[in-house]
Amino acid sequence: MPFVIYLERMEQESAKQYAYRILRRNILLLDMVPGEAIVEKDISTKLKLSRTPVREALLDLCRERLIEIYPQRGTRVALMDARLVDQGRFLRETVELALLELACKSFTQEQIAELEKNLDEQEHEAKKPDLISFFLKDNEFHRILFTACGKETVFDAIGFYFPHFTRERMLRLQMFNPDELLCDHRHILDAIKAGDCRTAKYHLSEHLDHVMCDQKLLKEGFPEYFIPKP
After folding, report:
1. What phi, psi does 126 have (nearest 5°)?
2. 55, 77, 99: which is the final residue of a domain?
3. Residue pLDDT tens, the chain, 230 long
4. Do 60 and 122 lie in a common domain?
5. How many domains is the chain partitioned into structurally?
6. Please, which of 16, 26, 58, 160 could form a disulfide with 32 given CB 3.0 to 4.6 Å?
7. Is 80 exposed, middle or buried (0-12, 13-18, 19+ CB in 10 A)?
């Protein structure tokens, strides 16, 4: 198991928080691939922790549907669930299209500047090997949109789906270029700056449509990573 400790335990972290952070990052970065067995004892040894905080972290990840726990049979990294990504895409498009109506009418220069700063940071992070930072900035772009429109709790409500998008995106990077995502965001921001809601909505829909089009290619290229159709 190519388990990576990206950053040693931080001073303020509890043992459970440390185990959760390291496990989650390994899952999202696909160092631990879908379907891979997880041996609690091995994780505990590598992290130099007792098994209790590791078990608690695994339970949290199970609630996020990033791992699967089978009593008496073992634990494994969850296979990618195309239905979750599809449902997340539907929810995001429904909410964010309405959000763009507000953004194109009311965004201030300060809010636009914050989005432009975020895109500059995305471009910087896209050049690094640890692309989780890029995806965090990607998510931050959308969070800024929600917060600027006074809908930050709505963003929190759809946050459940973001890790599932991230895993597919990490797999996608083995076949595509992350600059495409950055380009989508720039088109959306340019339309907001111009107050052109119709164009902003078009680019957002295109942005989210890429997810489903790419998913088809990913399932063909990596069928073992996805839950098979019933």
Report:
1. -65, -20
2. 77
3. 567 887 888 888 999 999 999 999 999 989 999 999 999 999 999 999 999 999 999 999 999 999 999 988 899 999 999 899 889 888 988 999 999 999 999 899 999 999 999 999 999 988 876 677 887 888 899 999 999 999 999 998 888 988 898 888 888 776 667 788 889 999 999 999 999 999 999 999 888 877 777 788 888 889 999 998 76
4. no
5. 2
6. 26
7. buried
